[in-house]
Structure formats: C-alpha cells, structure tokens
Amino acid sequence: MPNFKDLFEQYSWDEVKASIYAKTAVDVEVALNNPDRSLEDFKALISPAAAQYLEQMAQKSHELTLQRFGNTMQLFAPMYLSNECQNICTYCGFSLDNKIKRKTLNDIEIAREVQAIKKLGFDHVLLVTGEANQTVGVEYLEHAIRKIRPHFANVSMEVQPLDQADYERLIPSGLHAVLVYQETYHEADYKKHHPKGKKSNFQYRLDTPDRLGKAGIHKMGLGTLIGLEDWRVDSFFTALHLDYLERTYWQTKYSLSFPRLRPFSGGLEPKVAMNDRELVQLICAYRLFNQEVELSLSTRETHTFRNHVIKLGITTMSAGSKTNPGGYEVEPQSLEQFEISDERSPKQIMEMLQANGYEPVWKDWDVALEIKA
C-alpha cells in the first residue's frame, strides 16, 4: 500500500531549503505563466524572489478562486470538548506540564454548547480536544459525534491522530472531516517541541493522512504551525504531502490552514517570524499551485488582515471562536488554548463579508442530499 513516508524520505530538508532560496525572478515569472504549476514552480512562488511579484500573484489567486468557488465564504465554529492532554508541547496552553484546570464536557454540557453555537447561526462545527486516550479516546469521540451530529450539517474534528480502524468506526457516526497538522516537517525540531507523549512519535503523525485516506474520510485538512521552523520549507513539504494525497486518495477533498504561533499561557516565542506580506504570499502560492484545495483562515489573525485577504484565495473562515472547553456557554472564563485576534461576532463577520460582495455560507448541503437518498 502507498505511504507518504517513502516519498518524504527522498527529500532532504537542507537541500529543499537551498533550492527555495536559490530561486530567481526568472523562475518566478516562469511559474506565474505556467498554467499547470509544478512543485518546482511552487518553490519559486514561496521564495524570497517572489516578494516583488506579490500583486501579480494576488490578482491571479483572486481570479482562480472566483472561478472555482465563486463569491462565497464558508463559516464554521470550533467547539472545544476537552483540554485534558497527556502530551508536552512547547507551544500549546493544554500541554501536560501547564498547571491549568482540566475539563471535559459531559452530555449536558455538550448540549448547552450545541445550543449556544446554533444560536450564533453556525451549521458547521469543528470538534477539538487534547490528547488523553483515557478520557477523550475513540469511545468518547464516537459518543460525542452521535450527540452533536443531528444538530449540524457538517461535523469535523481536530483531535489526536487515531488508527485506521478508529477512523473507520467514527465516519459512520457522522464524522465528515479530520484536520491533522504536522506542526513541522523538520523531524529533529519536531522532537524538540514534543518531548513527551504519543505526539512525540513523528512518524505516526506523518502517517496519519494515509490512515485517513485508507479509511475513506470525506475531507482532511493539512498544515503546519508557522513559527516553529522555516515557513518556506515547511510549506513546501505541506504542498508535497497534499500533492501525494490527491494523487493517492483522489476521492477525498482537502483543505489547508496557516496557523501562526499565537500567545498562550506559558508562551513560546516563534523561532521564525512570518509577517503579513509573507502570509499573503503563501496563501496566493497555494492557490496558484492548487485550484481545488480549500484555504482556511482562523480567528488567530487580526480583523484587519482577515478583511484584506478574503479576496485573495481564502474559502473558509472561523468566526466568534472560543478556544476553551465550554467557552460559548458552560464555562466562558476557562483557559484558552491560545488567544484569538479577531474577536468580532459571527454577525459582524457576516456583515463584513456581505459588504465585500461575498455570500456567507452557513449550511452544507450534505444533509439535504442524505435525506433524498
């Protein structure tokens, strides 16, 4: 059976980095004019040499996004079920060594959070937990999905990587998509940031999208945590991973996210800073490389930045997010996983989108299709 590991091991981090930084203006112009862009073209588009072509990249990215997705923006809300976690991660407020009050929502609390999120207008929800198999293992997740699924058209989750059999168990319960971020493809630095817990197994995490593809998930989300290592090199490996997955599991849809390291309790300073222009460059580069992939932007980013990039390739946004378990209704003051930047309400986000000529999409039509079937 195919496995990304075999392809990944053919690449050297240092050689990829040298290749990206050696790209010239000519390479960027070739990439811009190539309608079927390769991974080498993608390297050129994320290289320092592409900075002076940002306006051209933005115009092409806007055009391609309109052609594929139209003037629409899908909205979703994260729903944190638990902050219990057995991992030590240097960048996360839920890390085992962070002395915070731990909480896992019970059935009554889940129902209260569901009602609160529904009142905000959402029909797409992203379930989030830490990694604690004894309390939020596959049995808890299956139970929670069965409780939540009847209230939402689309249920995704961002939890610990699971075995293929676990995904095959959860999908019939109503699981639509799984987001699993590699954090960084730099194996040595990955181990520095994940010194303890199941998450310290770099290979198991790298293999997760393969297990999801084999399980037949409808959609999976990829990305790295920007700030842990050189964002250009990590972004290349993300594109390599995406390209492999699309060729191997062609029936699955894909999305990409670009989370920049944000403050949290016990905070880690980014090793590599990425400014706003560079994030715009990355968003446009992904769109020029792949016209089908969904590009998602969270409330980690400021409202000013989010206002300006909605026309440059983004297709999905979170709004009114709470990053703590029970944050919408049950326990609003509990510790967040990280601080958000855009604190506008879902209604304000909707009005901003409409003022820019976009239609906010709250509902996924899968439910209607399932009812007809």
Task: Produce the secondary structure layout.
Blueprint: H1 4-8, H2 13-21, H3 25-33, H4 39-46, H5 54-69, E1 72-80, H6 107-119, E2 124-128, H7 133-136, H8 138-148, E3 154-158, H9 164-170, E4 177-179, H10 187-193, H11 202-206, H12 208-215, E5 219-222, H13 231-248, E6 253-257, H14 276-289, E7 294-297, H15 303-309, E8 316-318, H16 346-355, E9 359-361, H17 366-372
Parallel strand pairs: 1-2, 1-8, 1-9, 2-3, 3-4, 4-5, 5-6, 6-7, 7-8
Helix pairs in contact: 3-4, 4-13, 4-14, 5-14, 9-12
Please, could you describe this protein's structure?
With 373 residues, this protein is α/β, with parallel strands linked by helices. It is 42% helix and 11% strand. It has 17 helices and nine strands. The protein has an eight-stranded parallel beta barrel, surrounded by four helices. Helix 3 (25-33) crosses helix 4 and helix 5 crosses helix 14 (276-289). It is globular and about 60 Å long. The two termini are 32 Å apart. The mean pLDDT is 92.
What is the chain-wise order of helices and strands?
HHHHHEHEHHEHEHHHEHEHEHEHEH
Name the average pLDDT: 92
Query: Helicity, in percent?
Result: 40-55%
**Estimated radius of gyration:** 20 Å
Q: Describe the strand arrangement of the main beta sheet, using strand numbers.
A: 1-2-3-4-5-6-7-8
Distance between the termini: 32 Å
Strand content: 5-15%
Q: What's the story with the biggest beta sheet?
A: 8 strands, parallel, barrel
| Coarse shape | globular
- Tally of helical runs: 17
| Strand segment tally | 9
Structural class: alpha/beta
- Uncertain runs: none
